[in-house]
Amino acid sequence: MENDMTQLAALDFELPSRNVRPLRTRLRAVLLGCGTVNSGVLDGLAEMSGAVEVSAVVTRRPRPGKDGRTAWLTDIRDAFDTGPDLVIDGLPDCPAAEKALELAVERGIHVVSANKAVIARRPDLEVRARRKGTRFVYSAAVGGGVPVLETVIRLTSAGERIARVRGVLNGTSNFVLGLLEQGTGFDEAIAAAQAAGFAEADPSADIDGLDAAAKLALIARKAFAFAPDAASIPAQSLLSLDPGQVCGARENGLRYRQLAELTRLEDGTIDARVSLTALPEDHPLARPENEENTVEIVCESGLKVVLHGKGAGRSPTAGAVLADIRDLVEAGEV
Ligand SMILES: NC(=O)C1=CN([C@@H]2O[C@H](COP(=O)(O)OP(=O)(O)OC[C@H]3O[C@@H](n4cnc5c(N)ncnc54)[C@H](OP(=O)(O)O)[C@@H]3O)[C@@H](O)[C@H]2O)C=CC1
Ligand SMILES: N[C@@H](CCO)C(=O)O
Prior knowledge:
By secondary structure, the chain is α/β, with parallel strands linked by helices. The protein has helices at about 35-45, 75-80, 95-105, 115-120, 125-130, 150-155, 170-180, 185-195, 205, 210-225, 245-250, 315-330, and strands at about 25-30, 50-60, 65, 70-75, 85-90, 110-115, 135, 160-170, 255-265, 270-280, 290-300, 305-310. A seven-stranded mixed sheet has the order 3-4-2-1-5-6-7, with helices on both faces. A five-stranded antiparallel sheet has the order 10-9-8-11-12. A hairpin with a 4-residue loop joins β11 (about 290-300) and β12. α1 crosses α12 (about 315-330). The longest helix is centred in the C-terminal third of the chain and has 17 residues, at about 315-330. The termini are far apart. The structure holds NADPH dihydro-nicotinamide-adenine-dinucleotide phosphate and L-homoserine. NADPH dihydro-nicotinamide-adenine-dinucleotide phosphate (NDP) binds near residues 90 and 317. NADPH dihydro-nicotinamide-adenine-dinucleotide phosphate binds next to α1.
């Protein structure tokens, strides 16, 4: 057959380039943590045409003292004393992170965070930031590079009522299940997820479904204006599965997935759960491989949106953090 592609006439239209377009404002930022996520953010900020000056980076272990205009510190309060407009939180779930976000909100500093555990546990921080008129955004906290919260927000802004959100929201558990299917042992599989930078500082959060539950709590805020307690969301641990069961299921055309689910019930209440489910291998939610996430959003109108992509790791997650930063700078709020 001849080439059957339609030739489209090109209009004179200049595509915007995010890399070269100068941003309107310049802001001072503090990076909390410089591990998997924030090391990628730091690299990305260097390419933002000088729109963001990093006044300090805080890590747990000391690093060389000063790098250009950036101070490398181990004390979070010292970093706040550099007078940031923005705090970029790439800390693990820990009391220091919770205190840092409290301090940022108290001082009227904008927050971009990837720290779903802390944000889920402390809905008051977002509420207080909103009252103060400062940004408190966390796109990277759910789905890594997959725009889950962004899509939910967009759908509700368009007047859609969300009925259900369901999918694989934890990259580590998916990665581990994939290795178990191939006969790898549990400990080895978790160690591989840690080495790849997918797992939480305490990987039991991934394995026991707590990370997925925290993500459901954040989705519920945007989908239903409701802040459930993530700790009360029932979650089934991967440890309840025998690795042989995972292998055996695969041989029979089934794939175990850690499924996170949020449903608006007829009486208006919200049901949330994280469970391990053996799905037929051609089921759309069986599709994510390795650290990928797949999420289905169903609206009462019948509209269904399926999102799929890398749910964890340096580059996709840093990309989502950088997009939040760029939105903030472009909005000219700093
Ligand atoms: N990794 C991923 O794929 C994703 C992670 N997230 C979230 O992003 C956040 C960061 O994750 P990730 O980058 O993987 O974590 P890492 O463990 O790679 O990095 C954590 C960083 O925080 C620093 N740190 C830890 N505790 C303290 C403390 N008490 N005071 C000062 N600094 C501290 C560490 O310092 P040091 O370097 O000295 O150890 C390190 O630089 C977490 O909340 C995670 O849930 C969200 C989406 C995806
Ligand atoms: N530990 C998380 C990081 C991304 O949120 C995961 O594996 O999904």
